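Extended Data, panel c. Modelled sequence:
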Amino acid sequence: MYYRRKIELALLQQFGGVVAKIDFQKLLFLFSQKQSEPTYHFVPYKFGGFSWQANQDMSTLTKYGKVKQNTINWEIIDNDNYSKQLTSADAIVLMQIYNQFKHLRGNELIRYVYEQYPYYAINSEIAGRILDSKQFSKVQQNKPVNNDCTLFTIGYEGKSVEQYVNLLIQQDVKLLCDVRKNPISMKYGFSKSQLKMIVEGVGIRYEHFPELGIESQKRQELNSMNDYEVLFEDYRQNTLPFKKKEVNAVYEEFRSAKRIALTCFEKEAECCHRNSLANTIKDTFKDANIFINHL
């Protein structure tokens, strides 16, 4: 079993075995904030900080017969003592979280998290109801707002989907343009349907441009920067000149949304065709003075 799932089970056990799903996300969020290196990352979502990976892990644990759920609660049905399976550092954090929040539930717990971590409440559907005007104003002040025109590029290699989405939110990206030929990933959150659901859940539009991707067979045997340079030269010479309609479509999206991001897999833009695509858009529409930012 993945260690991160043992943390979830230990947290559930420590707080009595049955915890409301919203409370569980908040408690896991607070636990993660106290870790030197967070096990889970969170994004500002409908009820505050939320981790899709943590939620997916809990669903997986139900399939393994460790947990059961209903529309409101998670309930552990495994008798193993998971607290004893944590590292000493995480076991200490778990006890700290329990001692501090064992009597806090529902809106009181949510309010505490919103007050202490207002960024994570910026997309909340209930913040205006459970916070006073001063607290709510602080939340609104934490919402990134930027109207400068910027063409971003971002790869998800080495990032959790929550880290990835936070980068988009913090840069006030309005539209995510997926330029993978085949938008399928073994990594949770990055296949097309998952990614579309996740980013649109935080107010970022998603569009897929498969015509601007590179065929997978061309991506074999990339062992050196020279291999990448050969690949991208081929892309610039033999793909992009024949995809003017799609390149124009991305540019029109940029003109409309002002802040869009081209996305693919590779961490470094220099090792990804999104860099060539961004530069082609910039060079094609020189009068627009396009600024490129690689996240």
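Residues 21-34 form the longest helix (14 residues). This feature is highlighted in the accompanying rendering.
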